[in-house]
Structure formats: structure tokens, C-alpha cells
Amino acid sequence: MSGRQYLPNTPEDRQAMLAALGLASVEELFSDIPEAVRFNRDLNLPAGLSEWEAMRELRTRAGRNLTVDEAACFLGAGYYDHYVPSVVRHLASRAEFVTAYTQYQPEISQGALQALWEYQSMICELTGLDVANASLYDGGTALAEAMNMCCGITNRKKVLVSVGVNPFYRRILATYAHDLGFEIMDIPTVNGITDYAAAEKMLDKQTAGVIVQSPNFFGCIEQPEPLVAATHAVGALFVMSVNPIALALLKSPGELGADIAVGEGQPLGLGLNFGGPGLGFMAVREKFMRRMPGRIVGQTVDKEGRRGFVLTLQAREQHIRREKAYSNICSNEALCALTAAIYLAVVGKQGLVDVARLCLDKAHYAAGKISAIEGYELAFPAPFFHEFVIKTPRPVAEINQALLAHKIIGGFDLGQVDGRLANHMLLAVTEKRTREEIDALAAVLEGQK
Amino acid sequence: MSQMNNPALVFELSRPGRTAVDLPANDVPSPELSAVLPAECLRSAAPELPQISEVDAVRHYTMLSRRNFGVDNGFYPLGSCTMKYNPKINEDAARLPGFANIHPLQPGETVQGALQLMYELQNYLAEIAGMDAFTLQPAAGAHGELTGLKLIRAYHEHRGDYKRTKVIVPDSAHGTNPATATVCGLEMVEIKSNADGNVDLEALRAAVGPDTAALMLTNPSTLGLFESQIVEIAQIVHEAGGLLYYDGANANAILGKTRPGDMGFDVVHFNLHKTFSTPHGGGGPGSGPVGVKAKLAEFLPVPVIEFDGTRYKLSYDRPKSIGRMHSFYGNFSVLVRAYTYIRIMGPDGLRQVAEDAVLNANYVMRSLQDVYELPYDRHCKHECVFAGLKNPNGVKTVDVAKRLLDYGYHPPTIYFPLIVHEAMMIEPTETESKETLDAFIAVMRKIAQEAIENPDLVTGAPHVTPVRRLDEVTAARKPIVRYQRA
Questions:
Q1: Range of A117's domain?
Q2: Domains contained in chain A, number
Q3: Chosen domain end from A321, A342, A363
């Protein structure tokens, strides 16, 4: 029998337990399953393997993938190849964190509770907002939860969403909105930036919220202050989807006047993992705290007056409010939040600024280098952080093929999500990219005219 | 020891100038910030993150980990959460560079191994569930529920049937079921359980109709009992034109013994972090893949993984798809862990999992029923539910739970399911030995004795944990949810 290493009971143990129950066979315990639906054959699965054999199978599959260790990665589009300091993984791998569950028993969960409370505090620092939750699934679903919040708080159903918002996220918004009867209206972009004037004209007393991303999907930094004011003037909420590394330098959603900030926390030490698990972070103004989805950790004292932490404001949540809950979220991405907190503590105040500065400088070096090549030009004039769009003289897929031959993973083909953006490549440059790699990228592009 | 008893916050360890990161020198020109970004884009001050050295970070988080209890620390019979042992090899597999260090938007030909693993996992889950197609996008159980109800809505709507707005949920259901119905824009109809802990068929017959979108059912139920009238239930719902949704929270009990698809369910989610041994992470990341019968496959979220016999491919060409439920393809590294587990267990190992999980739960139930109140006296499946102490003497279920902390155990789930007074839901899982169960049983019996002889000892528990009972009322009334610099 396979898997014995995880099944400690021996045949003798089983026999002893059955004897204690007065049963002859374990089958008797399944006698309440109607005959008609009993499964009377072996599952058609590969036979069980030893640990070593299983790892060989896994290595074979892993070996068919090209890693960012083997090729220089200039792909971003919502997920970024940042360096994860060794100590982050070591600490986040502590089994006491990894093998625990939700902190229903705070007396033996103080470690995770304190770490998540510290995480919430750090997210508040980054976003400039008052209260953060202890995580949502990912950047896209966090934005959908923010949309639900806007509609729930205002009791309205119209949401304006900039076309500069990540198109994968916009698809999630549409998916979530469909069954709730929310109406999503696209705010166009002009030169890669949200058309604020058009947005203001779309605002009315039916508008629940306005959603803008910055840096937006095209890498451009939005400056939405007037739109924020206009949004508030009609009683709607302003939501920003943001990049946590960029927040080391950029004006925070709080400073910009936003009510809700969400984003993908993957850049904060999580690695790539083919897109998951990510980390949906969310922070809001204090007045919306009791409408926020997800777990929230609060500080309190024990009966001897010692500082301690508990899950709090649980009256918002599904296990208490059931059908009246604001969200159905239960399991979230707690370990990813803990990892992000460790990352932020490890890089620290100056380190995060340094990481952001390296990204900024390398991206601008790359943009300068590439836009100097004949046939290639920057698509948009707006200021950018670590990602930018290049108009290419040939289809992006062909260029990326050529890059792969040089062990370079090229940028995202924007034509895949917007037909008008054929021959537009979205390039991301993180602190991991060296000048040599950027020069090599430019050299290959030079030959692709 | 003082740190263990009175730990500093990471912010309190901070000293200007310290860091735990070593970045490479900048090898490109670094102009003045103002030359690159306009001043009105820039924040007024850098975020106030801690400034600590690497050893500070290591000691801080190691100290915090010692104030946390996981399956690796000890027995964790938290009912409905399936806190089984999490194999270490799963972690190694997930960390293989070929899985950990790939970008989700890389060209298809550079990620064939990842797509192959996902495709194979979908097929394995379909076989285990008795379903025809799977999506791996949902990031947790509740996310799977939402995906599943959206698929059911899409199914009805594409048949021109817009009247189906109600989801029937038994009163024993997890809170996520009714909450999911609401966030899917549907109305929840609750039906009572009967005296055996089963769905009351008459109540179900009265509840179904042309407005029924679906019945959501957990089987075995949250009472740990197999719904033995499942065939009749499926018939009643289907005849009314509704679909059946299987909440896979308790699937550990049925692996290789019965399948949701064979029971008549149309849509199912599994919790890979419960049934398939991936760690719970203190509340995620989990994974909640959703399986469907063929008639619902065209509505699955995009992208869908396709295999033409040679190449694996992500397909977006699904005009009837509900859309997208995840930024990418789901919690991939969790999928790798579950895949590893299935490959190691094989069909016989998985069936043994169910048998041992059920045997362990019945053994605990029968060993405690003379001192704890057993509301449903029949074979349980993977978990058993008690209604508090038989002789409480003023000691409540929460007190028993807190006293268990003193003895080094994670308590069972308490006060759930809601239909059992003073509920205490014990799920031992198959990864616990008879000795572990015997020791736990002995402690549970000892606490029952303490309740009679010295109830204050139990109601005052815990006594030896890093903190004692915490003031949750003040925490909610005057929330302190972030660090405020002095």
C-alpha cells in the first residue's frame, strides 16, 4: 500500500480499534453509503510512488519549463521578477506558521496574529490609509472585493473602471459584477493615461465607485486628484489598484485621496510560482473598516494585562453573518501576507526605497536604450516606474521568439488583450536585471526590424 | 525568555541605519529623482517600515513561530478543516526552480511542464470526484463555491431560465455556503435537518420549485454524518430543474469509497489544503478547484488548459465562459503540492486515507460518548460532533477547548455546526496514530473529571499558554488594528 509514511496506524492498530468498536471490518463504517453510489473499483490514477520516484516525475515536468534563472525576464504585466532575500524564505517556511490554520485559538496563535497585525500596519504605511485586512486571494479578486464594497456602501450599482486597469483584473470585475447586476463602464485612456475629463462626464448620482490603477497596466503613473474630488462630489468611492514596490516612491493612495487601495502583493517576496499564490492586499479609510472583507487582527490584552492579538470585527464575516456577510471569503493568503511582512521588515525603510530606485533607474535606462533603436519608440509620454510600452516594427510574438533564442524572456504582447495595440510590447525591468542583460535585449531588438 | 513572554513588535526593534538586505550596486545611470518623475507624483516621505538587521529578523520571526501552534507541533483535531500532516516532499516539489521561478505569461512552449502538471491534476481530480472537467483557478474553498454557483447560474441562463434565483442550504452548512449564495446574487433558502442529522426530505420537497437554482450540500455533512438519502435528494432537486453543488470540505471521508459525480452532484469543489495535504498556512494559501459534469464544461472560467496529444495550451476561446476568477491560473504552487500527494498515494493509498480517517473518528467518538453528549448515535465519517459535556457542572465547550491548550492540544472546532448546542467537532484525520488518539481521549476524559471535581480549573484555563484568555470584546469595540508611532 502506498503512502504508508503518512498513515501511522498498522494493521494491528486498525484491528484493535475495530475490536473496540465491536466491528469486524472497516467497511461496516461505510454501510450508510447507499449501495447504488458506492465506488467498487480502484480509482483510475497512476499507482502510488515512492518519494524518490515521485520527485523524478516532478523534476521531469519542472525540467520542461524555462526558468527566470536561465533566461533574463522582462515580463511583468502584474507579476514581477524581484529578488527574494534568502532569509525571507527561511523564516516564512517555519513549520509552526506553515502547518497552522486560522487563528481561532489566539492563546496558541500569537505568533501568526502578531505577524499579521504587523503586516496590516506595514500595508497601512505603504498605502497611506487607516486600516488593512490580513489578505485577500490576489490583486484581481481584491479589486473585485473593492468593487463590491463600493456598491454595498453606496447602495448603487454603477462602477467606472479605467481601461488602464489590468485587463485580467477587468475580466474578473466583469465576472463578479455579472451576477450582482453591477454595471461596469469603461473609462477610456488617452496617451496611456486615464481620460479624467471623460471620467468626470460619466460620473453621476448612480455611480458607486471609480477604479483607477497606478502605475497602470501600461506602466504609466496616474495623477488622478481632480477625478478623486469629482468622485467624492457625487458620493462615490475612489479605488486605486497599486504596486507595493512603487509605493516606496510614489504618492500613496491616501495622499491622493482614495478611499480604498488594493493590489497584488506578489512583488513583496513571494516569487513567481507561475502566477500563484499571490497576495491581495486591501487598505481603507477608517470609516469603511466595518465593511471591509476578510480577516482583521486587532490588539488587545489578556486577563493578566499582557499585550496580545486576536481576530477581530468578526461580525462582518461569513461564519457569523452567513447570508448577510459582505463577502464569502474564509481562507485567504495568510502565509503570503506573513511572507510579505517578513520581506518588508527585511528590506526595511531604506531597502524598499533602494529596490524601487533600482527598478526605476534600470527601466529608464532600458527605455532610453530601446527607444533609440530605429523602428522602436516609447508608445506613451507619461512618467513611468518600472514598466513601459514600446511600439515595435514587427509582431511582438516574432520578436519574443528571437529573444528566446538568446535566453531572454521578452515583454508582454499587448495585442493579446487589445487589438488596437498590436505591435506594442509591455516591458518590465526589475532590480534583478543587469545592464548587460538590458544591453543584450537591445542588441537583439536591433536585429529585429 | 522575556522575549517569549513579552515580545517586542518588529517596529519596536527598529534602529535608523540598520538593514537586512544587501542589494547589488546600481550598474546603470541614476539621475536625480526629479529628473525622472515629476514632483507631484512623489510621496512626501518614505513609508515608515522597520529598520532591523538580518539577525534581528531571524530572532523576531523565530520567536513568533514559537508562539504559534501547527500540525507539526501536535495533534490538531479542528473539525471540518482536515488538519492532516503536510508531507515535506510537497514543499520540495513546489520549490523546484522549474515550478517556482516561471512567470505566468511566458510563451506556452516555455511552460509545457507546468501546463502538463495542471492538466494531469485536473484529470486526477475529475476521476476522484466522478466529474468530467475541472478548473484549478479558485484560490480557496469559498472561492470555489462562488465559481460553482456562477457556473450554475450560467447554465440556467443559457437555457433561457432566469427564474432560478434561490439556493437551498441545509441549516448544518458552513457559513460560506449562504454567504456565497448572496455574493453570487442569489437568495438563500435554509432547510432544517431531521432528527438523524440528515436533510429533511419533506422540507426539501417543499423548498424546491421553478425558482431553485441549486442545492448546496456537504456530504458527509458538518455533523460528520453521511447523507444516506443522497439518491432521493438528487432526484428531488433534479426533477425540480435545479442542480446539485457538492461542498468538498469533508471529502477526506469518501476518497475511493464514493464519488460526488456518482451521487448525482453536478458541480463540486475540493479543498486541496484539506483533502490533498497541502499546508493551511495559517489561513491560506489554499486551493479550491471546481469540477463539473459535461453539460457545464462550456461555462468554465478561462483560460482552460487544452492538450492536443503533443502540446499543452491555455485556451481563451470559450464564448460561454463565466469569465475569469483569478489573476492567472490559480494557486499553482499549491497545485504542485497536491499533485505530489496524489502521485505518492495512488488509488490504494487514497482509499486507505478515507478508511483510516473514518476509523479514527469513530474510535474517538465511541471512546468519549460516555462523558460527552453525543447528539447523533450512528457511525460518523471523518469527524464526530459532541454537544458539550454530559455533566457540565458549569463548564462550557469553550472551557474544555481552553483546557486542552494546557495539555498541548489544538482544540476541536467549537460552536459549529450551529444546530448542535455547545458543539465540539473533532476531526482526527488519518495521519494520527492510535497512541495519539488514546492520549487525547485520556485528556478529554480527564477534563471531564476536572469539570466535576474542580470546575474553576477548567473555566480559568488556559493556564500555561504564552498569553491567557484575551479580551476580545474590547478588541472589537475599540479596534487597534495597526501600529501607531509614538
A1: 86-342
A2: 3
A3: A342
Q: A9 and B434 in contact by Cβ < 8 A?
A: yes
Q: Indicate whether this complex's ipTM tops 0.90.
A: yes
- What confidence tens digit (pLDDT) does each residue in B24-62 have? 999 999 999 999 999 999 999 999 999 999 999 999 999
Looking at CA atoms only, how far is residue B464 from chain A in angstroms? 10
Confidence at residue A181, expressed as pLDDT on a 0 to 100 scale: 96
DSSP secondary structure code for residue B7 in this structure: P
**Contacting A residues, span 101-120, partner chain B, CB-CB under 8 Å:** 101-112, 114-118, 120
Among A55, A147, A328, A385, most B C-beta atoms within 10 A, so best to mutate, is A328
**3-state class (DSSP) for residue A130:** coil
A264 pLDDT above the threshold of 80:
yes
Identical fold for domains B89-344 and B352-472, yes or no, is no
Q: Tell whether A240 and A112 lie within a shared domain.
A: yes
Q: Are residues A295 and A158 in the same domain?
A: yes
Whether domain B89-344 has CATH 3.50.80.10: no
Mapped to the 3 state alphabet, what secondary structure does B22-87 carry?
Answer: CCCCCCCCCCCHHHHCCHHHECCCCCCCCCCCHHHHHHHHHHHHHCECCCCCCCCCECCCCCCCCC
- Give B274-283 pLDDT, tens digit per residue: 999 999 999 9
SS3 B131: coil
Confidence of residue A193 (pLDDT cuts 50, 70, 90): very high
How much is the pTM?
Answer: 0.98
Cross-strand pairs, B372: B389
- In this complex, which of B61, B175, B433 lies closest to A322 when CB atoms are compared? B175
Average pLDDT over residues B15-23: 94
Cell numbers representing residue A352 in the block: 524598499
**Grid cell in block for residue B287:** 486551493
Q: Closest CB to A103: pick one of B141, B181, B282.
A: B282
Q: Chain A residue closest to B405 (CA)?
A: A108
Q: What is the pLDDT averaged over residues B198-211?
A: 97
Fold of B352-472: Aspartate Aminotransferase, domain 1 (3.90.1150)
Residue B187 φ then ψ, to 5°: -105, 135
Contacts of A85 in chain B (CB under 8 A): 20-22
Chain B positions touching A433 (Cβ under 8 A) are none
- DSSP designation for B111: B
Model confidence pLDDT, tens digit, residues B186-195 = 999 999 999 9
A-contacting residues of B 306-345, CB under 8 Å? 322-334, 336, 339-340, 342-345
| Residue B481 to residue A54, Cβ atoms within 8 A | no
In chain B, residues with a C-beta closer than 8 Å to the C-beta of A250 are 37, 41-43
Q: What is the pLDDT of residue B1?
A: 43
Q: Closest Cα partner for A273 from A55, A68, A417, A58? A: A68
- Segment B197-215 shows an average pLDDT of 97
Please tell me what DSSP assigns to residue A279: -
